[in-house]
Every structure is written in C-alpha cells, then in structure tokens.
Amino acid sequence: MERLDGAKVIVTGGTSGMGEAVALAFPGLGAEVVFFGRNKAAGKRISEKSGATFMPLDIKDADATKAAIDEAAAKLGGLDVLIHAAGIAPFSAAEEITMENWIDVMSTNATSTYVTNVAAFPYLKGEGGVILNFTSSGGIQGYVRKAHYGASKGAVTAWSRSIAMEWAQYGIRVNMIAPAIWTPMYDKTRAAMTPEQLAEHDKVMAASVPLGGKLGDLDTDYVPVMAFLSSDSSKFITGQVVCIDGGILMMR
Predict the structure, then answer these.
(1) Residue 2 domain-assigned?
(2) Lower CB count within 10 Å: N or C terminus of the chain?
(3) CATH code assigned at 59
(4) Is-catalytic flag, 143?
(5) Residue 203: which domain range?
(6) Residues 59-98 pLDDT 10s
(7) 149, 170, 186, 222: which one is catalytic?
(8) In this structure, is residue 250 part of a structural domain?
(9) pLDDT tens digit string along 20-46?
C-alpha cells in the first residue's frame, strides 16, 4: 500500500463507513488526519484508535463547514488532500419525493461538495493537492427509487470534472470515487432482511458483481485505492470516476 508520510488530510463523513475507514487507516500510513462527522462518540473512539483528530460537524451547515476546514487546515499546518465522503442515500419512489427530501439530499451530497471543495481551494492552490469526491453509479446511470440521490451524485460528477479542468493549472487533482463496498450500514441492511429476502439479494449480487459476486472489503479493496489516489503515484490522474466496485459500473 502507498505511504502517505507527512500528507495533511481532511476527511468528511469520518465517523462511519468509508470515511471512517480512511480516518482509521491513513495515520498508520504516515498521514496527519483531521476528520469530521456528527457522531461524537464514534469520533472519540476513532480518534483514540487511530491518532487522527476529530472535529464534530454537520456537513449541511455551509458556514460551519467552511470554518471547520479553515480550523482543520490551521491544525494541520496546511492541506494536501481533501476526502469528501459525507453523504446520504435514502430510498423513495420518484413521484413521492417531497421538496424537503430533495433539499435534504441535494444539500448533504451536492451542495456540501461545492462548499468543501471551494473552502479547501485556497490551501491547495499554492503547491497543488488532491480532492476526492464521492459519486455513485446512480449519478452515472440512474437509480430506481433513488432519483434524488442519483441527481445529487450527477451534480457531484459534473462539478468534479469541471473543477478538475479549471484547477489543473494549480496542480490540483480532482477525482471521484464510485464505490460498492461492504460497510457496517450494509450489515444493518442485511440484518433487516428475512432469510428469503437475503437469499434473493445475494443471488442478485452474485450476478451483478463480476469480481467475487459481493461488495468489496473496506480494508483490502477500498483503502489501498484511496491511498493511491491520495499519493503522488496518481499525479497524472484527474477528472476520473474511479470505480471501486468489482466491475459493476464499467466506465467508458
């Protein structure tokens, strides 16, 4: 796995799932990490385990988010990598999405991407750096019963490609992660299924994921790719959707 010695990293959504995996792993690769999240108990646990610094934050609060990035960059003494992993993915039939639902998903997923990226820009502009935003296959090809989520991730994709072109002059690389990874939230989803539903679900997954027939592993499939994309080894890669998904979404 790539080393990240001395890299100054900010992670959003760091108290659960894929953000948590990065907050736990990157300090061991030599990075200095500040991570944000709403769950203070989880933040304390992760911080004690990894040595990363936790700052509580509701990513939907734009002013608080900008202030938190300023404070984190000050704590770190600069910034090399922003990993914006915070997001939500609620289910709803398209015709049943309320304005409140729409605004909640768009502000959490799309608007927060704009806010965090722009807030990080002044710290990355001088010597270049990395922004990793999270998109989804839903933002590329759509999702049934997740139209608002798909729309938000489509916005993330278009925004990320646009700033990848615009900010390349400053040496800033902007890439997107499209993951299909087994997280604790997925464990809860599986636990809520009946044995019959679970069997059908696993049958569908076996047919949908070319590599292995199931979602990827946080530590062995996901974190190494995140480390690579955060390192200088990926210095000639920008504007890309990187699918860590076992071949579900084969980008062209």
Answers:
(1) no
(2) C
(3) 3.40.50.720
(4) no
(5) 182-215
(6) 999 999 999 999 999 999 999 999 999 999 999 999 999 9
(7) 149
(8) no
(9) 999 999 999 999 999 999 999 999 999
Which tokens in the block code for residue 27?
């300090």
**231 found inside a domain:** yes
Closest CA to 238 of 130, 155, 144, 81: 130
222 and 132 within one domain: yes
CA R_g for the chain: 18
Q: What average pLDDT is seen over the chain?
A: 97
pTM of the model: 0.97
Q: Are residue 133 and residue 153 in the same domain, yes or no?
A: yes
Q: Give dist(CA 168, CA 182) in Å, integer.
A: 33
Confidence (pLDDT) at 43: 98
Structure tokens at 182: 């087994």
Do 36 and 98 lie in a common domain? yes
Any domain includes 60: yes
Say whether both 82 and 194 belong to one domain.
Answer: no
Whether the CB-CB separation of 215 and 186 falls below 8 Å is answered with: yes
Instruction: List strand residue ranges (DSSP E) for 22-128, in order.
Output: 32-37, 53-56, 81-84
